[in-house]
Every structure is written in structure tokens, then in C-alpha cells.
Design goal:
- By secondary structure, the protein is an alpha+beta fold.
- It has 3 helices and 4 strands, in the order H-E-E-E-H-E-H.
- It has a 4-stranded mixed β-sheet with strand order 1-2-4-3, sandwiched between helices.
Length: about 130
């Protein structure tokens, strides 16, 4: 069994505008409160099984400090639990673009964020079957 690496590399962050536009045009979404998850399975060979984008609306959180805090919590919960999703995708030889959009007006605790991330991963695994 290989050692689990809890990292979040640059390649795992979705930054290419063409992929982002494609994700929001053709992607499907669901809600794992307080997150809205937009996902799109892709055929092109990406270097990683999952590329993510995290968004916290400026309209709900005016201060960048609060937006960054929420993004850090989302990133950390993704980083700790991503192995469950990447194992399934690698086995099925599929790749995925995912956007996490924060919906709540209050800052969620890390425990709530982890619970939402686990629910999102469970739904994504079901949809990728």
C-alpha cells in the first residue's frame, strides 16, 4: 500500500480560464450546505485526477480576511479528505473539474466544513459511478 500524501499542489488548483468557463457552462451542481459544488467530468488528460476552484462571494463577506479564512477551511478539509475521491477516480480512469462555492452568510466552523466536504465527496462518488 502506498503512503498517503496530504498535499494540495499547484496542479490541483483550477486556474486555466478555458476550463473554468467550461466548468460553469457545462457542469452540473448540487448543494452540500454550506457549499455549492459544481463539477464536470473531463476527457482531456489532466496531470491530476481532480482540479478544484474555491470561491467565496465578496457580496456576502466584504472583508478579504474573512473570505480568506473560509477559503483556508475549505482547502484544508479538501486536502485532508481528497484521497477518498482521487482513489475512486484513478481506479475508474476519470478526471474531474470541481468548484466549491460558499453559500452561507456566517463563517462555518471547521467541523461543519469537513462534514459538508464529506457529503460532497459522497455525492460526487455516487455520480461518478
Amino acid at each position: 500500500m502506498t503512503e498517503r500524501r496530504y498535499t494540495l499542489s499547484k496542479a490541483e488548483r483550477l486556474s486555466w480560464k478555458r476550463y473554468i468557463d467550461l466548468l460553469f457552462l457545462q457542469g452540473q451542481s448540487f448543494i452540500a450546505y454550506p457549499l455549492r459544488v459544481v463539477y464536470l467530468p473531463v476527457e482531456k488528460r489532466l496531470s491530476v485526477p481532480v482540479s478544484i476552484l474555491i470561491s467565496v462571494p465578496k457580496k456576502k463577506f466584504k472583508r478579504a480576511v474573512k473570505r480568506n479564512l473560509i477559503k483556508r477551511k475549505i482547502r484544508e478539509s479538501f486536502r485532508l479528505h481528497k484521497q477518498e475521491l482521487t482513489d475512486n477516480l484513478t481506479a475508474a480512469d476519470k478526471q474531474l473539474l470541481v468548484a466549491f462555492i460558499y453559500l452561507d452568510n456566517q463563517i462555518a466552523s471547521f467541523a461543519e466544513m469537513e462534514k459538508a466536504m464529506n457529503k460532497a465527496f459522497r455525492i460526487l462518488r455516487e455520480k461518478m459511478q
